[in-house]
Every structure is written in C-alpha cells, then in structure tokens.
UniProtKB/TrEMBL annotation, chain B:
It comes from Heyndrickxia coagulans. It comes from the Bacteria. Keywords: Membrane, Transmembrane, Transmembrane helix. The keyword Membrane applies. This is ABC-2 family transporter protein.
Length: 299, 279
C-alpha cells in the first residue's frame, strides 16, 4: 500500500477539493436583489434585465444580473453557457420558430404584428462579397409558412457598410430603414410582388457636411409596430469633439422627417451623459446630474 | 486495469520528488506573500498613524489609503510565481515523460516495452498521470486558499481589513479565472481542452519516435491539422455562414470536435506505441 501513497494522496485531494470548491461556489448566496414594479405595465417585466456591478475599492467586483425571476452573481455563471445575452422576445422566437430563426441574428431587423414576423438583413452575396443584397424572411404566424426574398439593393456596395436599423410595415409594404456611411435610406419592399418598389434617402452625409455621423436611438421594443424612426445627427470636429447634435424623427406613414428640440438649459459638453430612448409615441431623453440621479425629458 | 493503475502509480512516483518539492515551494511562497503584503501595509500604516497620534488616525488612514484585502496578496510574484513555476514544470514534463525513457539512463523504454502489459496502457498511463498531477496542483491551491485566508485574517488588524469570502476573492481576481473558472462546467471545458492538447502533443511525440526525422514533420503536421480541425466549426459558422447555428449549438459542436480530436489522438497514439515506436 505504501507504494501507492503518492497516487492516493493526489487522488483524494483531487476528488475531495475540486468538487467541494464548486459545490461551495454554486451554493453561494443569492445577491437578494429584486425587481419591484412601481408603476406601468407588468407584462413588460420579462423583457427587463438589469446588469449591475458592486465594486468595493475597485478590488472586490461583483457583477449581478437582475430579472423578474431573481438575481444572479454573473461571476458564478458559465462564460460558455451564458453566451447568449439575447432579450426574452428573441429567445422566445428561437424556441417557438427554430427553423425560421436560423441565421437571423440582427435584432434590429425584426418586426412582429398579429399576423407575421418579418426579418430583414443586408449582407454580402455568397461568392460576390463586393455586392450586397437585402434578404427578407416573412413568417406567417398562423400557417407557419415562411416566405423568403433576396433583392439586389440599389445604392449600396460592401464599402458602404450598410446595416438594417429598423423594419416596419405599412399596408402591404415593409419599410426597411438602413444606415450606411453615406446616410440613412428607407426601402419599400412590396410583400406580394417580392421586390423593392422604391426608396427614400432621409439623411445624407454629403448634405449635412463631411463630418456628420448618424446613429439610431435606442428603441423600447425593437420588434413591435412603430410608426417612427428616431435618429441623431452628430457633427464633429477634426479632433472628434461634437460640434452639433440634432435629433430627428422620421414618420413611416407620412414619409416626413421632423427635427426635435432639445432642452435649452443643457450643454453640449455633457453630451456623453445623454441617453435617448423612444417608443411609438415619445422620444425620452435622460441626463445624468452632477450630484447623481437623472433628469428626464419628453421631446 | 490493475496494470494501468500500477503504471500510473509508477509514473507519478518517478516525478514525486519534484512534484512535492513544487507543492512545498508553492505553500512557502504563498504564505510568504500573505505575510509580506500584510507586513508592508501595516508598517506603512503604523508609520503614518504614529506621526498623527490621534485616536481616530487608523480610521483616517483606511479612508485615505484604502483597506487591505485578501485579493492584494494574489498580485505579488510570491503568490503567482509558484503557480507559473508549476505550470511551466508540467509543460516541460509533458515532453520529458517520453524523452527521458529513450534518452535517460539505461534506455528505460526498452524495459517498459518488455512489460507484460498492453503497450496501449503506457500511453494512457502517462496521459492520466499528467492529468492527475495538474489536477493535484489545483486541489492543493484550493486547499491552501482557506488556510491562507485564515492566516491573513489572523495577522491583519480588523480596522485595516476588507472582509470577504475566499470565493469572492478568487472570483474577483482575473488571473484565477484561468485556473479556477467560476462555474464547474467551465472548469470541465478548460481542463478538457487542455488535456486534449496534451494528447495531441503525446501523439506528435510518438510520431517523431516512430519515424524519427520524417516523424518531426508528421508530428508538426498532425498538430497543425488538429488545430485546424478545432477551429473549423468556428470558421464555418462564425465567418462563412454566420448565424446558421445558434450559439449553444456551436458550443456543443466545438465540444464534440474536441472530443473527436482527443479520441483519434488516443487511437493513433495507441497504434503508434503498439506497432511503430522503436527503441
């Protein structure tokens, strides 16, 4: 038996210590953070996920995720199995329509109403990577039939870095808003004819000046019907400082673009601390106050 | 089975002196790290507190300079150095475990080949002993941490100390994530992948031992092909056909690919040691 002492000592240490360590880690305390409804629609709670960090003297850093089902210490979660940080609606789509969801990863490209789920994406054509095409997939929720379309896109090359920002439906048409380095374009895709029937440039970098940059504002429900697209135009100096910032909304029904007025008593210098979010009715703006907390505006 | 256990024990015993020396160095060095970290902090604190000679000076020191925590002991060479030393020793031993049998005293591989056991067992026993010794180092570290934590708490005055659990300290120190990932499944993935790399290297070594000069090229080619195969699912489904597979599916395909690489490494290694490797 003495001959085996080294093997036995190592084996006992491995079998005892490693499982014990991971059992202790898994049994670690729930951070005890909860989501509590103060006001608003309770049905929206499954879509809410707050990631929080508790840092003590920048050394003891705890990352939490807080959802309606409780809170978790993210450090104790698998970095492999928690790869998908997708929102609840997206996971639901994958669960309910796994075949339709293959290859559909750009969450801004989804649209859902009572009848259908639509998805649009602009990507390079296979074997012709310098050319891009608009791919549209429509799922009929009742019949589960999938209709796919592939269309050549006018006004785009791979160098334009096009990406779909938003998809909406008006009548029998899908309206696909796409951002690229030259500006923003909205394409009209006829669902019965399966082709692009027109497009409109709603913002052009050349007209606004060479240093203009466009970004879509955050949407509360990216996949829900919404008649506006809210975006921002930033004009920056050569050194990258923001000279001018303008917020616009584009109405899919009227095809009109409207400029929004920002509050007068705010300084552009603090623009890094501005947060925007919009739903179908309102664009909200939040400004972090110097002493903590935030001011909220309806634009 | 009995002969396999005997061979594993034999391989471990051959490395035991160095192994336990490394464990002893780790224990001594890590306790030194805890002691020195606390000692430096307390000396500095006492120096400043002594000059102020106020009853609340210690509290003021903590507010101004910050408290000391168990994590502070991890960042020193005394603490991480022995871990790196053990890792380096194991990497070195992956090669030495084979080559010393050929180039050591009395061409020991000759005697090994003459043993009345399946030669296949030699390959598996060497692989198992490497895995056991690596996991043994991890186990030693896991056992050491609570003891070091107790020692840290015992020598650090309460007023200067930021209290935390051992788990919190380990999870908050990024380098420990490699050694001890936060979830058990990650531990299996990390060490499973590491063990597969060991198997690929073993098979490459046996190719070299079987075909000598040509074998060096074959070994390198084998390593390269295994590397390519490992990255194929990622390249296929992240670059060429992005989004066709869901993330979880891709992960399990990668796990399966790793298992396949480990499997054919064992098969090829077993074949080589049985039929091709010569003294």
């Amino acid at each position: 038996m003495r001959r085996y002492i080294n093997l036995l000592v190592i084996l006992v240490a491995v079998v005892a210590a490693i499982p014990l360590f991971y059992t202790a880690l898994a049994a670690g305390k729930d951070p005890g953070l909860v989501l509590k409804r103060v006001s608003g629609n309770e049905n929206e709670i499954p879509n809410v996920k707050i990631t929080a960090m508790d840092s003590q003297e920048k050394r003891l850093n705890r990352m939490f995720s807080i959802t309606s089902s409780g809170s978790h210490d993210l450090r104790r979660e698998s970095s492999f199995l928690s790869l998908d940080e997708d929102p609840a609606w997206y996971k639901q789509y994958v669960k309910q329509y796994p075949r339709y969801m293959r290859g559909k990863t750009d969450q801004g490209g989804f649209y859902e109403d009572k009848q259908m789920i639509a998805y649009a994406e602009i990507k390079p054509q296979p074997l012709h990577r310098s050319r891009v095409a608009l791919y549209v997939g429509v799922l009929d929720k009742k019949t589960k039939k999938i209709k796919t379309m592939k269309m050549k896109v006018p006004g785009f090359t791979k160098q334009s870095y096009p990406s779909v920002w938003d998809v909406q439906k008006t009548g029998n048409e899908l309206k696909v808003a796409a951002g690229m380095d030259t500006g923003i374009r909205v394409y009209r895709v006829s669902l019965p004819e399966k082709k692009i029937t027109g497009d409109k440039v709603i913002a052009q970098r050349e007209q606004a000046g060479r240093m203009a940059q466009y970004t879509q504002l955050a949407e509360t429900d990216v996949n829900k019907p919404n008649h506006i697209l809210a975006y921002q135009e930033e004009k920056v100096d050569d050194d990258g400082t923001v000279k001018e910032m303008t917020t616009f909304i584009y109405n899919y029904h009227t095809n009109e673009t409207k400029k929004l007025r920002l509050p007068k008593d705010i300084s552009l210098r603090d623009s890094d601390n501005w947060k925007f979010v919009y739903n179908g009715k309102t664009v909200y703006m939040a400004i972090t106050k110097k002493n903590g907390g935030a001011r909220l505006f309806n634009l | 089975m009995k002969s396999f256990v005997k061979l594993v024990n034999f391989e471990i015993n051959r490395f035991a002196k160095i192994y336990w020396s490394l464990v002893a160095i780790t224990i001594l060095s890590q306790f030194t790290s805890v002691f020195l970290t606390v000692h430096c902090y307390i000396s500095q604190a006492n120096g400043i507190v002594y000059h102020q000679s106020l009853p609340t000076a210690q509290l003021a020191y903590v507010k101004h300079y910050g408290s000391i925590s168990f994590i502070d002991c991890f960042g020193t060479v005394w603490f991480m150095g022995p871990i790196a030393l053990c890792a380096a020793a194991m990497v070195f031993y992956i090669f030495l475990i084979w080559y010393r049998d050929w180039y050591g005293k009395h061409t020991f591989i000759y005697r090994l080949f003459m043993l009345p056991v399946e030669r296949w067992n030699l390959y598996l026993a060497k692989a198992a002993s490497i895995l056991l010794m690596v996991l043994g180092f991890i186990a030693v570290q896991i056992i050491l941490l609570p003891v070091e934590h107790f020692f840290f708490n015992a020598i650090t005055p309460r007023i200067y100390r930021m209290d935390m659990t051992v788990a919190d300290a380990v999870l908050s120190f990024p380098y420990f994530n490699l050694l001890l990932p936060g979830a058990a499944i990650d531990f299996l993935f990390h060490y499973g992948l590491g063990f597969t790399v060991v198997l690929v290297i073993f098979t490459a070594i046996l190719l070299e031992r079987s075909f000598r000069m040509k074998g060096i090229l074959l070994g390198l080619l084998y390593g390269f092909l295994s590397f390519v195969l490992f990255w194929t699912p990622d390249f296929l489904f992240e670059v060429l056909l992005p989004g066709v597979l869901h993330q979880q599916e891709l992960l399990w395909i990668e796990v399966a690919t790793t298992a396949i690489i480990a499997g054919y490494s064992i098969l090829l290694g077993g074949y080589l040691i049985k039929y091709k490797a010569t003294v």
